[in-house]
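# nightly structure sweep
# worker-07 picked up a monomer target from the shared queue
# config: single-sequence mode, recycle default, output format = structure tokens
# input follows
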Amino acid sequence: MTEYAIFFNQQWVGDHSEEWFRPRGPLALAVVHEMQEAGVLVFAGGLVEELEEAFSADATSGDLVIPDGPYVETKEYLGGLTIVDVEDEEAAKMWAGKVAVACGWPQEVRPFKPWPGRAAKAETA
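# output follows
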């Protein structure tokens, strides 16, 4: 099994009416429930859109600094993500497609790098 992140930048959502957005929540929640029933869901959630609620932690100077706001000013920022643990890339694509259809905007999919803790967890499961 491999964990994949399925995510989108807030800017990919586009400008839509409240009427357009209203049915998206239940559609996305139905996909999350389907992932739970299939036993592949690790995590799913949307992020708060107000960037003034973001903060960062930076120790690159040798001292830890935790300023208000995002780390860098950028026009794109993460809007939400889903993490699935699936057999292969084809399964990750299938779930990403379901999320994209439910939400109505593009999703990017990336596998997590191998990590010894995950391998040990899989062996004991």
